[in-house]
Design a protein that fits this description.
About 40% of the residues lie in helices and about 30% in strands. The protein starts with 8 loop residues before the first strand and ends in a 9-residue tail after the last strand. It has one domain (about 10-90): Arc Repressor Mutant, subunit A (Orthogonal Bundle). The protein is of the alpha+beta class. The longest helix is centred in the C-terminal third of the chain and has 17 residues, at about 70-85. The chain has three helices and six strands. It has a three-stranded antiparallel beta sheet with strand order 5-1-6.
Length: about 100
């Protein structure tokens, strides 16, 4: 299990195909040939994992958008993101280095 903290920034990993259909986001991992479905809050959380926002910031946005208690959203979000990271769908952004 990967350690995800409220201050962790996560981004979608390359090699994951994403398709939206009828309010559901379908993810296909080309690496292992496995697919995953996210809807509602889970789908929106996936969209917000861009490497720029922390888990806490994402939880705050979701709490506002879905009018739900922030503590509940953050707890459930941590579980979801941990599962997605364990499946190698999400990872921490790699620092960009300048080339000389």
């Amino acid at each position: 299990m990967k350690a995800i903290q409220p201050s962790t920034r996560l981004q979608r990993n390359e090699g994951i195909l994403t398709q939206e259909a009828a309010g559901t986001i379908v993810l296909l991992s080309l690496e292992i040939g496995q697919y995953y479905c996210l809807d509602g809050v889970g789908g929106r959380a996936w969209e917000l994992c861009d490497g720029h926002r922390t888990v806490s910031e994402i939880a705050g946005l979701l709490s506002e958008e879905f009018d739900a208690p922030a503590a509940t959203i953050e707890r459930d979000l941590m579980e979801l993101l941990t599962n997605l990271a364990d499946e190698n769908l999400l990872g921490e952004p790699t620092p960009k280095t300048g080339r000389t």
